[in-house]
Amino acid sequence: MGMTDPLADMLARIRNASKAKHEKVDIPASILKSHVARILKDEGYIKNYKVIKDGKQGILRVYLKFEGDAKKQVIGGLKVLSKPGRRRYVGVDSIPSVLRGLGVTILSTSKGILTDREAQKMKVGGELLVSVW
User: Fold this and answer.
1) How many helices, marked H, and strands, marked E, lie in the chain?
2) What SS3 state is found at 36?
């Protein structure tokens, strides 16, 4: 049986591993997931990621980031905005901000996978994918 929403599965795995204070989490790889992981790294929510070739689909290994000795989670929350049954598209003027700019919204645009700030700078809208704070 196939997975209906691979992006939601990725975010659930990251959320669960972060709450369990794991150092890393393995996710079935895809191009979309690696672009989302790149943005999470660039925005400082994860330490690093790498794609491991296994002769099949590949594995995306995400290294999680924590603060301090108590291993406080850097990722406060992850939310899937667009689902297979209900896609959400927005124009450049109606891109939502997360926590008044403290979080980040990830969009799929004609210019690629971008953050809300990059999409507004390039003046493009697109499909809302994820919000992270």
Assistant:
1) 3, 10
2) helix
Tokens representing residue 111 in the block: 């210019």
Query: 84 and 4 in contact (C-beta within 8 Å)?
Result: yes
The token duo for 75 is 């990722």
CA distance 120 to 19: 32
- Rounded to two decimals, the pTM is 0.91
Q: Tokens standing for 54? A: 């296994």
List Cβ neighbours of 1 (8 Å cut-off, separation of 6 or more).
none
For the chain, list the strands marked E by DSSP. 24-28, 46-52, 59-64, 66-67, 72-73, 78-80, 89-90, 104-109, 112-115, 126-132
Q: What pLDDT, in 10s, does the model give residues 28-76?
A: 999 999 999 999 999 999 999 999 999 899 999 999 999 988 888 999 9
Give the Cα separation of 93 and 96 in Å (integer): 9
The first and second tokens of residue 126, run together, are: 């697109």
